[in-house]
C-alpha cells in the first residue's frame, strides 16, 4: 500500500458504530484509502451524506428508504452483496454489520482472496474454524478491539508456543451493582456503557458479559487456539484489550485508548503502521497507571459461563448461543423480559438442543434462524423455566 495506489474499500454496515469507525479512518487518510462501496440495511438518514462525501461507485441497500445522489449506483436484492464482493472496484471489505445477511458474502470474499476486516460475530461463528487459516495468512484482520489486540500480539509468533489467550472486559455498568437489584435494570441503563460508545444490542451484551463469551468462541475460530486456553478477565479501565501468554512464561499485552478507530486503522493499513492523525485520541498516560484485573463471578455473569460451556461442547453450540442471545436481548430491549432473564433464556436454548452438528453454511444459517425463532417464542411465552428439548 502506498500513496500512489489507494486501497479500494467497501464498508458493509456503514452506518453502525464499527462501520463509522472504519469510515473515520478512510476520512483521515484519503491518500491511502478510497471508499468505493457502501452497504447497509436501510441506510438510515446518514447514508445520503456519506454518499455525497465519499462518492462511492456502488451502494447496496436491503430496504432503501432515503434518496441517494444520482451518481451512486444502487444495487438491491439477495445477490447484491455478492456482486459487491466480486466487483473489481473492491479490494478490501470491512464486515461491520450484524446478523447473518453477510455470511455468504464473507465466504465468497475468502474464496476470492480479498482483504477482509472482520467484526461480524454471527458470520464469524457460522463460518467457524474455516477462518483460522485466512487470519494466519493475513487475509482476514480481526476488527473487534479484543481480537485485533490478540492478532497484533500474535504477529510473528509461533501459535504452537501459545499458553493462553486472555480477553479483557470492562465489566459493564453493573459490575458493582448488588445482585438483588439486577432484575430492576432498565433497557436504558443496560445500553449505557461506561467506557465504549456502541450500539444498544452490543452494550446490553457487555452488561451481561455474554459478549465476552461470544468473543471467546470467536477467538477459537479466528486463531485456532483450543477453547480451554482462552480466558476472560475483567479490567475496568479498558486500557489493556488482550494478553497472550507463551510457554516460556512471557506475556504480551496490547495497551491503547478504548477507541474502535485504532483497531480499524491497524486492520485497514496492515502490514504498515500509519502515524496517528485522527482527532480526540490521546495516548494512554503511563505515569501512575494502575492495571487492575479480576475474575468474573458466575453469579453475576451467568451468560458468560453458558458461553464457556458452549465452547466446551463444540459445534454447533456457538451458533445456537449467539442466535438465542440476539433474540433474548431483543425482547429485553422491547421491555418484555427482565435483564436477568436474558441469561436464563440463552441457557435454556443451549441446554435444550439435542440435534447434531451441521456442516454446510446454508444449514448453519438455517439452524441460527430456527434457534432465534425458538428463543423469541420462549421469551414471549415466558417459558424458559421449563426445560424443553429441541433439535
Automatic annotation (TrEMBL):
1-deoxy-D-xylulose 5-phosphate reductoisomerase N-terminal domain mapped to chain residues: 9-126
In this chain the 1-deoxy-D-xylulose 5-phosphate reductoisomerase C-terminal domain maps to 140-223
Q: Does the keyword Oxidoreductase apply?
A: yes
User: Any idea which GO molecular function terms this record carries?
Assistant: 1-deoxy-D-xylulose-5-phosphate reductoisomerase activity; isomerase activity; manganese ion binding; NADPH binding
Domain DXP reductoisomerase C-terminal, residue spans: 255-372
The protein's Enzyme Commission number? 1.1.1.267
- Indicate which residues the UniProt annotation says bind NADPH: 15-18, 120, 122, 199
**One Pfam family this chain carries?**
DXP_reductoisom
A GO biological process this protein is involved in?
A: isopentenyl diphosphate biosynthetic process, methylerythritol 4-phosphate pathway involved in terpenoid biosynthetic process
Q: Which UniProt keywords apply?
A: Isomerase, Isoprene biosynthesis, Magnesium, Manganese, Metal-binding, NADP, Oxidoreductase
**What is catalysed by this protein?**
2-C-methyl-D-erythritol 4-phosphate + NADP(+) = 1-deoxy-D-xylulose 5-phosphate + NADPH + H(+)
**Residues that, per the record, bind 1-deoxy-D-xylulose 5-phosphate:** 121, 145-146, 170, 193, 206, 211-212, 215
Asked if Acetylation is a keyword of the record, the answer is no
Task: List the SUPFAM superfamilies.
Answer: 1-deoxy-D-xylulose-5-phosphate reductoisomerase, C-terminal domain, Glyceraldehyde-3-phosphate dehydrogenase-like, C-terminal domain, NAD(P)-binding Rossmann-fold domains
**Annotated Mn(2+) binding sites:** 144, 146, 215
**Cofactor(s) needed for function:** Mg(2+); Mn(2+)
EC top class, as a word: oxidoreductase
| Pathway where it operates | Isoprenoid biosynthesis; isopentenyl diphosphate biosynthesis via DXP pathway; isopentenyl diphosphate from 1-deoxy-D-xylulose 5-phosphate: step 1/6
What's the domain of life for this entry? Bacteria
Output the PANTHER family linked to this UniProt entry.
1-DEOXY-D-XYLULOSE 5-PHOSPHATE REDUCTOISOMERASE, 1-DEOXY-D-XYLULOSE 5-PHOSPHATE REDUCTOISOMERASE, CHLOROPLASTIC
Its biological purpose: Catalyzes the NADPH-dependent rearrangement and reduction of 1-deoxy-D-xylulose-5-phosphate (DXP) to 2-C-methyl-D-erythritol 4-phosphate (MEP).
Which family is this sequence assigned to?
Belongs to the DXR family.
This chain's protein is named: 1-deoxy-D-xylulose 5-phosphate reductoisomerase
Amino acid at each position: 500500500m502506498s500513496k500512489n495506489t489507494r486501497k479500494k474499500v467497501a464498508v458493509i454496515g456503514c452506518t453502525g458504530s464499527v462501520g463509522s469507525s472504519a469510515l473515520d479512518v478512510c476520512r483521515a487518510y484519503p491518500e491511502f484509502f478510497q471508499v468505493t462501496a457502501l452497504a447497509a440495511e436501510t441506510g438510515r438518514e446518514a447514508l445520503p451524506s456519506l454518499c455525497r462525501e465519499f462518492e462511492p461507485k456502488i451502494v447496496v441497500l436491503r430496504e432503501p428508504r432515503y434518496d441517494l445522489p444520482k451518481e451512486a449506483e444502487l444495487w438491491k436484492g439477495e445477490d447484491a452483496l455478492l456482486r459487491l464482493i466480486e466487483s473489481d472496484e473492491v479490494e478490501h471489505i470491512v464486515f461491520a454489520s450484524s446478523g447473518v445477511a453477510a455470511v455468504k458474502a464473507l465466504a465468497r470474499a475468502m474464496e476470492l482472496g480479498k482483504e477482509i476486516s472482520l467484526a461480524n460475530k454471527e458470520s464469524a461463528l457460522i463460518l467457524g474454524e474455516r477462518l483460522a487459516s485466512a487470519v494466519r495468512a493475513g487475509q482476514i484482520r480481526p476488527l473487534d478491539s479484543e481480537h485485533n489486540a490478540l492478532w497484533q500480539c500474535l504477529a510473528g509468533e509461533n501459535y504452537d508456543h501459545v499458553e493462553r489467550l486472555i480477553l479483557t472486559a470492562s465489566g459493564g455498568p453493573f459490575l458493582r451493582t448488588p445482585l438483588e437489584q439486577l432484575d430492576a435494570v432498565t433497557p436504558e441503563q443496560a445500553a449505557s456503557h461506561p467506557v465504549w460508545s456502541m450500539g444498544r444490542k452490543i452494550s446490553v451484551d457487555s452488561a451481561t458479559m455474554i459478549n465476552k463469551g461470544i468473543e471467546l468462541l470467536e477467538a477459537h475460530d479466528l486463531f485456532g487456539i483450543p477453547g480451554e486456553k482462552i480466558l476472560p478477565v475483567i479490567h475496568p479501565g479498558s486500557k489493556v484489550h488482550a494478553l497472550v501468554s507463551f510457554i516460556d512464561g512471557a506475556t504480551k499485552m496490547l495497551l491503547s485508548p478504548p477507541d474502535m478507530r485504532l483497531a480499524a486503522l491497524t486492520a485497514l493499513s496492515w502490514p504498515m503502521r500509519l502515524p496517528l492523525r485522527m482527532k480526540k485520541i490521546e495516548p494512554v498516560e503511563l505515569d501512575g497507571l494502575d492495571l487492575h484485573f479480576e475474575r468474573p463471578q458466575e453469579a453475576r455473569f451467568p451468560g458468560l459461563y453458558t458461553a464457556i460451556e458452549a465452547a466446551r461442547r463444540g459445534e454447533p453450540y456457538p451458533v445456537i448461543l449467539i442466535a438465542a442471545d440476539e433474540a433474548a436481548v431483543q425482547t429485553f430491549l422491547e421491555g418484555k423480559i427482565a435483564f436477568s432473564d436474558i441469561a436464563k433464556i440463552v441457557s435454556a436454548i443451549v441446554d435444550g438442543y439435542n440435534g447434531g452438528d451441521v456442516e454446510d453454511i446454508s444449514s448453519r444459517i438455517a439452524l441460527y434462524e430456527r434457534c432465534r425463532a425458538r428463543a423469541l417464542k420462549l421469551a414471549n411465552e415466558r417459558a424458559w423455566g421449563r426445560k424443553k428439548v429441541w433439535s
